[in-house]
Every structure is written in structure tokens, then in C-alpha cells.
Design brief:
The protein is an alpha/beta fold. Helix content is 50%, strand content 17%. It has 14 helices and eleven strands. It has a six-stranded mixed β-sheet, sandwiched between helices. Strands 7-6-8-5-9 form a five-stranded mixed β-sheet, with helices on both faces. Helix 8 links the parallel strand 6 and strand 7. Helix 3 crosses helix 12 and helix 5 packs parallel to helix 14. It is globular, with a radius of gyration of 30 Å.
């Protein structure tokens, strides 16, 4: 760039003064040019960011323009799978675009979740997971190939099933207070079943025992059906079972419901009192909910758009009616609400797991 001399040089009263003025200008020229370059760089960066933001907004506005995949990290027919498929069918109608559910079981949910963690953060690959994967297993297992709070981003809750305390009618108790009295009369307390160590049924019963101050022996089973059948048959004293599994047996008189593990009665079974009403002991909302998650880095605006569609789907009258038959409710909600539910249950179940001293490989 040519060196342009300021007019003060030309009108200097002496050659020496002009020479000094010229020297000062040329010395400062480097800083001047650096300032110009710096301003141009900032301007270019701002233009790039503005363009990227506009492009991202266009992508969000147009979403979805191709099929959306929802991974379920468990086998077909599971509660998480049923909720995901119900949601996917309704989302397909809302978006006029295919929403495909893919089952990727294995590794206690890790295989399917890890697949989504490694997927592009563009909203087209999501994972629908139960609360256990988001709030329990991170505390339960010594190692996990991902961190659900860092490697996934919350989208929306999908649905939930309440847990109900059930006993065999042959046990001879009519409410939670009688159950606690019976437990205190036995030197070894009561036995309770669950579909496995660290399951919500296990943790709910452990919380109840701690809150009531009673002894209880855990008997883990390989699945819900076997655990519930042995309670009905009288081989085990009690179980906290999901309402969809227990309700048919309760209605048939084969199981006695003592209380819902929730702070409010359920409209699906309004005659069953809450656990606090029945026993005087509360363990809060021990609800088996599922959440829809995206890969970390998925823009919030995109997650909010997906969440709005999920909420529309899961709260629609036809979906609520269909789920009610199964003892389940549709939820929906915002990414922020799901994040809070994750954190609240993570704190609660984490404390229980620490108290019980449970760790799995």
C-alpha cells in the first residue's frame, strides 16, 4: 500500500520537522494496518456467524425434510418401545414425514444410546429412554461409555407409568399402615421382589423401607412377570409394580393394591389411594417415565420445535385414551422440564443407591 503523507508534512517550516513527521507516520503505519486487518477479521467472522445462524434457522424452520429415526435401546414390546412407537406414529401424522423406531437392545441400554451419542446433532436421530438410563444407571454402574448429562441433550418427556405397591390378598393386610405393623412384628421383616437390582421397583421398595423404618429383604428376578407372579402366589410379600402390569391382576382380585407411589391419585385408578394416604409414609413420585434425547450439540431451537410436536402428539385425546387402557399417560413438555426431571431423579436415586451401597460392573 503506498505511503500517503499527511498535509502537516508538506507545510512544515523546516526539512527536519518534515523528516520527523514522516518518520512518525511510517512508524505508526504498521499499527494502523494491524487495526484495519483486525477490524476486517472481526467483520468477516460476524458475517460468517450471521450466515450460519440464518442457515440454522432455515434448517429449524424446515425440519423435518427427511425421515426421523427414534432409537429404543431395548427390545420390542418393552414399555419404552410401546411409548416410542405410539409417539412416532402420531409425529408422522403431524410432520407428514416418516418417523421410524429402531430397536437397538444390549448392554443395559448402552448400545442404543451410544449409537445416538455418535450421531449428527441435526435432530434426525433421537433416542427414547426410560428414567433408569437417565437417572439411575449413571449411579449404579461403575463405568458407562457416555455421560447422559454431557453427551446427550434433553428434548421432551414422552410418557409415564405409575408404580403401585401390591401384595397378595392372602397376606391379610388392607392398607399401608397394617403392612408396616406386620413388618415390625416379624424379626426378619418383609420380602419384596423386583425385576432386577437397581430397577425402579427395587429402589422404590428400598425408599419405602427406609422411610417407614422397617426391615425388608430384596429378592431380584429376571423380569417383571416372574416377580409379580410370585407376589400374587404368596412366595414374596410385596412389590412396587408398574400400573400397566399390575392393574389387570388388581382388577381380577388376584393382587391387593395398597398405595400409589405418587403424590396424587391417578385418574387411571382413582380408587387406589396414594402411598402416603395408605401408610402415612411418602417416597414422592416414583414414576417410571421415559424421555426423548438428542445428541449433544443439537440446537435448542430445534429441540424446542421437536418438543412442541411431541407434546402435541402425547397430549392429544386419542393418544391419551389409547395409553390409558395400558395404565400409562402421555406427557410431552419442554427440554428444560426434562432436564429438571433428570436432575431431580438423579439426585434422589443417587442418594438411595449410595445409602444401599450398590455398585454394578
Amino acid at each position: 500500500m503506498p505511503c500517503v503523507v499527511r498535509r502537516s508534512v508538506l507545510i512544515a517550516t523546516s526539512v527536519e520537522a518534515a523528516r520527523q513527521e514522516l518518520k512518525n507516520f511510517c512508524r505508526n503505519k504498521g499499527n494502523f494496518m494491524k487495526s484495519i486487518i483486525r477490524r476486517c477479521a472481526f467483520g468477516l467472522a460476524a458475517a460468517i456467524l450471521a450466515g450460519a445462524g440464518a442457515h440454522a434457522q432455515e434448517d429449524t424452520d424446515a425440519f423435518p425434510t427427511k425421515p426421523v429415526y427414534v432409537v429404543v435401546p431395548y427390545g420390542a414390546g418393552s414399555a419404552a418401545d410401546t411409548l416410542a412407537r405410539t409417539m412416532a406414529q402420531k409425529l408422522s401424522e403431524i410432520w407428514n414425514q416418516s418417523v421410524i423406531v429402531e430397536n437397538k437392545p444390549g448392554g443395559v441400554g448402552t448400545i442404543g444410546i451410544n449409537l445416538v451419542v455418535r450421531s449428527p446433532a441435526d435432530g434426525y436421530t433421537l433416542v427414547s429412554v426410560p428414567v433408569s438410563d437417565l437417572a439411575v444407571n449413571p449411579h449404579l454402574y461403575r463405568t458407562r461409555p457416555f455421560d447422559v448429562f454431557k453427551d446427550l441433550a434433553p428434548v421432551s418427556q414422552v410418557g409415564a407409568a405409575l408404580n403401585v405397591l401390591v401384595v397378595s390378598p392372602a397376606l391379610g393386610v388392607k392398607n399401608g399402615k397394617e403392612l408396616i405393623a406386620l413388618a415390625k412384628s416379624k424379626p426378619d421383616g418383609l420380602t419384596y421382589s423386583s425385576p432386577g437390582v437397581g430397577s425402579q421397583a427395587h429402589l422404590a421398595a428400598a425408599m419405602f423401607g427406609l422411610a417407614a423404618g422397617i426391615k425388608m429383604q430384596h429378592i431380584p428376578y429376571n423380569g417383571v412377570a416372574a416377580a409379580l407372579n410370585d407376589v400374587v402366589g404368596g412366595q414374596v410379600d410385596i412389590m412396587f409394580a408398574q400400573l400397566p402390569s399390575a392393574l389387570p391382576m388388581i382388577q381380577a382380585g388376584r393382587a391387593q393394591a395398597l398405595g400409589m407411589a405418587s403424590e396424587r391419585r391417578s385418574s387411571l385408578a382413582p380408587d387406589i389411594p396414594t402411598l402416603e394416604e395408605s401408610s402415612g409414609v411418602s417416597i414422592g413420585d416414583a414414576v417410571s417415565w421415559s424421555g426423548l434425547m438428542a445428541p449433544a450439540g443439537t440446537p435448542l431451537a430445534l429441540r424446542e420445535k421437536i418438543a412442541a410436536a411431541v407434546t402435541q402428539a402425547m397430549r392429544s385425546p386419542d393418544i391419551q385414551k389409547r395409553l390409558a387402557v395400558m395404565g400409562t399417560v402421555g406427557l410431552g413438555g419442554t427440554p428444560q422440564e426434562l432436564a429438571k426431571a433428570m436432575q431431580d431423579d438423579s439426585n434422589r436415586y443417587g442418594n438411595v443407591i449410595k445409602t444401599l451401597g450398590i455398585k454394578l460392573d
